[in-house]
């Protein structure tokens, strides 16, 4: 058994009880070696069911022959293969678009609790660190590729990150493996290829262990990122505070508990909090956070990010996305269901709890000038009541209002008129929750 086999077996030890093993198989050198190693292991030992998946991007004519090569390679090993064709979105970076399409396909086809093996190695890790360093990445980006991360309903694992490209090529040649040479890998117009073909060999002339050192630095930065994550989670728990409206199920934080931290810890906290919700801005665009944080107390500042908006209301931060970014539209005609919930387009659900007396009942949103007759308080202007209740500005246009003819009778979740309260009727609103995070 070779040193490569031993290192692989060590990396696989925690994953022996996975529901299945699947290899991301491009047909290139690296994934061919990984698949061959796993197939040999499966012949000697009991392991989860092993298969392979090949993603066909359709970006170059020569790639049309690659699925057949992959089928023949897998057939020789007795490994089932799935070929998935994807559409690569047109955008500035073809590499990034292809990667997004590829990993989306992997996530979609991965079984629950299965492991997808990807064949990136130490040289890839070094190139990734250098590439991101040149792009000005922070600690999270410079941690480069993690050994494992969630993917779809399973886990992505990179078991060869401690192995060099030379080791993999030596194994392939020793076992007589054939593999695909992607001609685009020689095109130095692509940044990663330029680093691999021009920069890394030059570094290795002066520092023969350059790849090892860079990969080691990535590991140190990964550890630093873990510590920053732990600090962010501690700060996040402390910054939750007590939301004024528990029924408003939006991600939110108490601003005063955030701003008592140093600027660096504020940014670390916000990156951790918002990372599952939105792509984060580069350093130059963090001025938006400073503007929101330091706006006058009676202002309603907004920080717009790629996938939503951060609002400030009554000393609290709220993340708004999806339905919250468009004005709601009532059904036409607006129908009040005495029983069960009524869907409000783009605005969650509303429900009448209790039995309404006879009347001309309907729902609508604020138009201005409404007033409500409250028990023991008499008639009050709705705008003043919303100020008194400290309802965030972005919620006010969405609050379902229940009318009997032209008379306002209830404000969802907040108040009922004296006559409805006597009947035991409540108007309950379940607001939209917004997008639940980035898929991967």
TrEMBL record:
<dbReference type="InterPro" id="IPR012094">
    <property type="entry name" value="tRNA_Ile_lys_synt"/>
</dbReference>
<comment type="function">
    <text>Ligates lysine onto the cytidine present at position 34 of the AUA codon-specific tRNA(Ile) that contains the anticodon CAU, in an ATP-dependent manner. Cytidine is converted to lysidine, thus changing the amino acid specificity of the tRNA from methionine to isoleucine.</text>
</comment>
<keyword id="KW-0067">ATP-binding</keyword>
<comment type="similarity">
    <text>Belongs to the tRNA(Ile)-lysidine synthase family.</text>
</comment>
<dbReference type="Pfam" id="PF01171">
    <property type="entry name" value="ATP_bind_3"/>
</dbReference>
<dbReference type="InterPro" id="IPR015262">
    <property type="entry name" value="tRNA_Ile_lys_synt_subst-bd"/>
</dbReference>
<protein>
    <recommendedName>
        <fullName>tRNA(Ile)-lysidine synthase</fullName>
        <ecNumber>6.3.4.19</ecNumber>
    </recommendedName>
</protein>
<dbReference type="InterPro" id="IPR014729">
    <property type="entry name" value="Rossmann-like_a/b/a_fold"/>
</dbReference>
<dbReference type="Pfam" id="PF11734">
    <property type="entry name" value="TilS_C"/>
</dbReference>
<dbReference type="InterPro" id="IPR011063">
    <property type="entry name" value="TilS/TtcA_N"/>
</dbReference>
<dbReference type="InterPro" id="IPR012796">
    <property type="entry name" value="Lysidine-tRNA-synth_C"/>
</dbReference>
<keyword id="KW-0963">Cytoplasm</keyword>
<keyword id="KW-0547">Nucleotide-binding</keyword>
<dbReference type="InterPro" id="IPR012795">
    <property type="entry name" value="tRNA_Ile_lys_synt_N"/>
</dbReference>
<feature type="binding site">
    <location>
        <begin position="26"/>
        <end position="31"/>
    </location>
    <ligand>
        <name>ATP</name>
    </ligand>
</feature>
<keyword id="KW-0819">tRNA processing</keyword>
<feature type="domain" description="Lysidine-tRNA(Ile) synthetase C-terminal">
    <location>
        <begin position="361"/>
        <end position="429"/>
    </location>
</feature>
<dbReference type="GO" id="GO:0032267">
    <property type="term" value="F:tRNA(Ile)-lysidine synthase activity"/>
</dbReference>
<dbReference type="Pfam" id="PF09179">
    <property type="entry name" value="TilS"/>
</dbReference>
<keyword id="KW-0436">Ligase</keyword>
